[in-house]
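lol forgot to send this yesterday, sorry. C-alpha cells for the thing we talked abt
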C-alpha cells in the first residue's frame, strides 16, 4: 500500500480530496498540500516532509499539477533524495480516483506504470467520442 500526497497550486489539492470523497466516501491516506502565493519550493518541501513525518508515510505517490511548477520541483527534489517517493505531474480527477482506488491492490511501481498507461485516456474530446460512435454505427 502506498500513501498519496496531492500537491498543487491554490485549493486544487483540497478540491480533489473533496471531490474524491464525494464519489468514494471518506478516504484515508490521501494528503492534500496547498501551494499558495508567496511560498517557494522550500516551503512546499517543508510541508511535504512534515506530512510524511507526522503520518509516518513509507511508500508515497505525489501527484502534482504542473510539470516544473513549484509543487513539482519540490516533490521531485524529495524523490531525488528518497527512492520510496514517486512523483507524477498532470494530475486530474480521473487519475486521483485511480490512484485512490488502487491503493490496496498495487504497489508504488505498479501504480506509476498504470497511471502513465491510462493518463491519455483521462482526456477526451466530445467530438472524437461522437465521431467514433458514428463510425461504429452507435448513433
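and heres what i got for the seq, position by position
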Amino acid at each position: 500500500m502506498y500513501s498519496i500526497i496531492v500537491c498543487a497550486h491554490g485549493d486544487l489539492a483540497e478540491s480533489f480530496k473533496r471531490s474524491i470523497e464525494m464519489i468514494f466516501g471518506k478516504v484515508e491516506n490521501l494528503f492534500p498540500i496547498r501551494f499558495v502565493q508567496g511560498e517557494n519550493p522550500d516551503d512546499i518541501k517543508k510541508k511535504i516532509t512534515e506530512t510524511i513525518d507526522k503520518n509516518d508515510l513509507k511508500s508515497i505517490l505525489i501527484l502534482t499539477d504542473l510539470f516544473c511548477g513549484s509543487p513539482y520541483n519540490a516533490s521531485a527534489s524529495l524523490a531525488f533524495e528518497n527512492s520510496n517517493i514517486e512523483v507524477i505531474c498532470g494530475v486530474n480527477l480521473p487519475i486521483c480516483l485511480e490512484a485512490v482506488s488502487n491503493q490496496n491492490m498495487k504497489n508504488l511501481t505498479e501504480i506509476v506504470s498504470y497511471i502513465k498507461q491510462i493518463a491519455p485516456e483521462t482526456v477526451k474530446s466530445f467530438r472524437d467520442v461522437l465521431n467514433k460512435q458514428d463510425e461504429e454505427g452507435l448513433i
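The helical segments are 12-24, 41-55, 70-81, 93-101, 108-118, 126-135. anyway ping me if u want another try
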